[in-house]
Structure formats: structure tokens, C-alpha cells
Amino acid sequence: MRAARVGGIFFLGVGLGSCGSDGTGSASTPSHCEVGGPPASIDVDVCKSIPAAETADAATSCATCCTGAGFPDSGFLGSDHCLCGTVPKGDGDTACASKTASADECSACCSGGYVGYVSGGGTCQCGPKKDAAVCACALSDAEPDTSCESCCLHHGYLGIEYIGIGQRECGCVGS
Q: Which pTM value belongs to this model?
């Protein structure tokens, strides 16, 4: 699994292996649904001296470098080095705030487009927002996991939730 740190949260891309890079920070197998390079909100160069590694130290170093360069989010999505940016923001803090009766009620509400939740003490907070539509086209590619990474990066995301078995999904994760 590859861990990507975005806004202080780790996201795991299920079933992801190590991907090559074409030097721009994108996965080496382009998706047919991506357009152009990463958007202006993603900087592939400012912290590229920090190599991707599946450790908390790598994620912390990447986050520290990106914060110092003025970017709130960081990750290694589809790249062999640290990427910085400002990813799409969600409303996870308030989307299910009224669903406080039980953890099941909170979970059911947050499962409609968010990655995870925190419940307890009269609160329900959803995790980061997930967009499963923007890169759904990557699922029909020959290497859908790699294409999902690449497509999400090219749409301004630094995290994914890829599901390659059963009900397949390529979810681009913001914050």
C-alpha cells in the first residue's frame, strides 16, 4: 500500500504498487481520461528532493517541506517524490453534524461521499471528501490502479481511494 499524507491525514491507496514517474510527478501510464498536466494548484518540483517512501518520516518531511513552501497539502500520489498543493476542500466537519445518535448513524451519513468518520461525545465529523465520478473513466484502462492515481493527480487531488475488486471504484480524495 502507498500512503499519501494530505492535510495531516494519511490516505491509503488499496492495491497500489510502486509506480514509475515520467519526471513530471505523474504516473508513467497515462489514463485516457486525464487532460494535460497537473493543475496550477499542484507543484511537482518544490519538494521533489524528498523521495517517496512508505514511512511516517517521509510523509512528515514532505508535509513540512510543502508547508514551508506555502502549500497546505502534500503527498506522493503516482510519483516517486513529494508533491505539494492545495487540494479540493470538503465539508466533512459539518455535513453530518446532526447525526450524533450513534456511530452507525454517523457512519451511514458519512459513507455518502467521504473517507471515514469520527463519532463520539455528541459529535459526527466526516473525513475528507471523495469524488468517485471525476475519474471513473480510469476503471476501463488496462492498468486502472495506476490510471486512477494519474487521473486524480491531473484533476488536482493528492489522495485516492482505489477499490479494484467487487464494486470497483476510483475515488479522488480532497480534504
A: 0.73
